[in-house]
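User: Quick one: structure for sequence A, then sequence B.

Assistant: Sequence A:
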Amino acid sequence: MFKKSKSNTTSYGIVGIGRFGYALAIELAKEGNDILIIDCDEEKVAELREYTENAFVVKNIDKKSLQSTGIQNCDVAVVCIGEQLDTSILTTLNLVSMGIPHVISKAKSAEHGEILEKLGAEVVYPERDMAIRLANRLITSSVIDFVQLSEQINVSKMKIPDNAIGKSVIDLNLRSRFNLNIIAIEKSGVVSNTVDPHYTFQKDDVLYICGGRDSLTQFSDWLYK
C-alpha cells in the first residue's frame, strides 16, 4: 500500500496508463515527486516500475481495489481514462468520495466533462488543449508557445516583432491598447519577471504575454496589418 515518503513534495496517484497517463507519470517522477500508478495492463505497469515502486496492476477498478493500493493517501489523483466513459465516471466518483484533496479527470467531450465536474473533479481536455496551442502557433508565426489557463487567461510566448524593436514597454502600451500584460521578458536565454516600463526591446527578445484570447488575437492582427 502506498504511503507518502516525502513530506515536502506533492504525491500523485495516476489511474490509467495510456499515452497521456504514461507521459504524465514520467514527467512527475523526473521532478522527484512520489507517484502511484494503477492500470490493468501488466506490461505498461512493469515499464513504469523503473520510475516508482508504487505501480499496481488492478483488473477491476472498483472502490475496494483502489483503496487497497493506498491511492487515498495521495495529495492529487488523476484519472487518465478517456475511452471508457463509465469507468472514468465511476473511478472519479470513488476517488472524490475517498476524500482525496484534488481529483483531476481527463474528458473526451464537453458532456463527459460536465458529468466529471458535477462529481467534484477538475476536468482537463488534453486533445482539445493541444489543438488550441498548435492552432495559435500556426496562425501567428512569431508565437513560440501558447497555454490556455482558462477562457479568460492565456499566456503567449512570442518573439519580439520587428516593428516593436527599439520601442519601450511604455511605447508598446499593451495594457491600455489591448488589455494585455507583459509578465516576463527573455533576453539571451535569461527570463526576468521584473518588467521595467522603460525597457527598450531588442532583436531576439522573447515576450511572455498574458490576457484574453481575443486580446491576443487583436494584438497579433495589429502586428501584421
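Sequence B:
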Amino acid sequence: MSETHLEKALIGGGCFWCTEAIFTGLRGVKSAQPGYAGGRRENPSYEQVCSGATGHAEVVEVVFDPQEISFADVLRVFYTTHDPTQLNRQGNDVGTQYRSVIFALDPAQDAIAREVTQEIEASGIWPDPIVTEIAGPAVFWEAEEKHHDYFARNPETAYCSAVVAPKVAKARKMYRDRLKA
C-alpha cells in the first residue's frame, strides 16, 4: 500500500470496540483507530464521552487503500455490521455517543454516503428505516491506548464475548472474501 494513495473514513456504529475489530481484519484497511468525533469538547476522555454530555460519538477512523477497498465498500460493511435503524443506541448501549453516524470528510464522501445509504435502504436488509446521520467533517480525537485493539486483547470479557464476538463473526462470514490473509 502506498501511503500517498490512502484515504480515511470516519464512522460510528455504536461501540467502537466492535467497529474497530471488524475493520481491522479487512484487506485494504491499513488501520482502524477508535476515538471520538462530532462533539463540543476538545480531547475528551472515554468517561466524558460515556456520560453523554460531550456530544461526541464513539467512532473509528478507518485508513484504507481505495485500490483495494472503496469508500462505498467501507460503508457497505459498516451498514451491514451494525443496526443503522436504532436511533442513539446499539443494543443495550444507549445514548447519543452510540449513534450511527458517517462523518463525510469532503463533498465526494458525502455524495457516496448518501448513495450507499439509499442503496442499503432499498435493498431491504433492514426492515426499519435507516437513521444513520450523515454529517460533515469532524475533528477526530483518538481514544485512550487501553481502547486500541480492545477485542483482540480482551476477547474473554463479558462484553466482548456477548457483543463484539458475534458482530466480528458475522462480518468475517459475510466478508470472508475481503479478509486479510
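The beta strands are 7-13, 29-37, 57-64, 89-90, 93-94, 100-103, 133-135, 141-142. The helical segments are 16-24, 46-50, 71-80, 107-123, 150-153, 158-174.

User: Thanks, that's what I needed.
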